Amino acid sequence: MPNDEYPLTRSDQEGKIRLDQDEKMRTIGRLASGVAHDFNNILTSILGNAEIVKNIINGLPENDMPNNLMLENIKTLIVEHIEEIMTAGDRAADLTNQLLTYSRSKKLKFEAMSADEEILAMHRMITRVMRENINIRFDTNGARKFIQGDKTQFMQVMLNLVTNARDAMPNGGNLTISTADVDLTEEDSSKIPNSKIGKFIKISVEDDGEGIDSKNLQNIFEPFYTSKKQGQGTGLGLATTQAIISQHHGFINVTTTIGEGTCFDLYFPSFEVKESTSSSVCKSDNAEKLNGNYKVLLIEDDVAISNVIQRVLVRDGCKLFIFTNAEEALEFYRQNTEKIDIIISDYMTPGKITGYELIEQIIQGNSEQKVLLMSGYLELEVQNDINHFDIPFIAKPYKLNQLIHCMKEILGD
Predict the structure, then answer these.
(1) Which residue has the higher pLDDT, 119 or 66?
(2) What is the CATH number of domain 295-411?
């Protein structure tokens, strides 16, 4: 065993580097394989349903007008398959969000929140996830302080853990969720892997199920690693959970005994003062329509996306000026400033300037100009740019209702 007296030789060090590299490649390989598997399933559903819709439409008689009953049946069939396509799209978006969270690239909305209140608010949701033969006990009076967290991601963590607990108790059992204010000393921290000293809120999710064997325990936080049966889990749940907790500057500890159960202890830094943060991110799933005939400058290099946006905005009476290149769009804008009600631009566009730089230049010259930035990239650089000018922002993938809702808010429509 190497120590200060007997340091690692160069050969030992090279061997350790190779082992670390092999482990990284295995993790990346499992991640790539899992992503490919899940996305191929999603694409199969989308392509299959799209083909069925195409066949239904192509099968309509060219000359004879179908009667009302036939039209109603055709409409019902088409709507069913389109809903399947949209469901598959939502699955793809959820998978992407989990991957972004795992890679720590997803933008989080931090605000002061009470862990006790958030868990109690999830009472009904957690109860629905459980089976009838599982007893649930909430002991959530222990945490008096607040944590700075993203409520959506916090909920995701809790649902991941209670779902795992349910699956570990196929014959029923007991689930306990508890909270406590804790002040970890150096001695306490030495007993918990990857921990640190300080004041925390500890959230414990404990079951009396099957427990986790040592072989699986050392791999449970790896992406796409799962000990569940085929079709019962993606293997992203605990990897995502650990990534979210790390983004909240916390850590997680697991204790387990085969045949007796498992306890996940989550530690989030706690705060005395309740604080809040603002966000310019647009969100809404309500059906929306624009009420005005607006002039829209759209900068989007993906033709499929610009075509969809054009169809829905033209439906609502808008006139669009579409560019794939930010430089050309900027030149057009300078010649037609008074004609443009709102600029919608992708963050990253081809050419000498990006969509963000285009909007930055326009805002600096005309602070009253209405703008909306959109992007599928959510790295720290993008977040900082958005926050710098407090630019209204919508993340891809988004639904058309969300886009319209953003525009209505920005335009005061």
Answers:
(1) 119
(2) 3.40.50.2300
